[in-house]
Amino acid sequence: MATYAISINERSHSGKALMSYLQALGVLVTKLERQQKSSFLRSQEDIREGRIEHFASSSEMFESLGI
Predict the structure, then answer these.
(1) Which residues have CB under 8 Å from 66's CB, separation 6+?
(2) Whole-model pTM?
């Protein structure tokens, strides 16, 4: 037996119909939920990827933003 992973838009009419059809056939359908990253994990990822800027003062930050 093979295992397949497909993405189906369940909000569309055809997606709902396909899910109903697969369930009617008795095919085991499991919905995989993507877990959201916590804010801590996102911040750690930002630091690793270099998406963080450091400023000496708030006025320096506002100048870089053009405010």
Answers:
(1) none
(2) 0.43
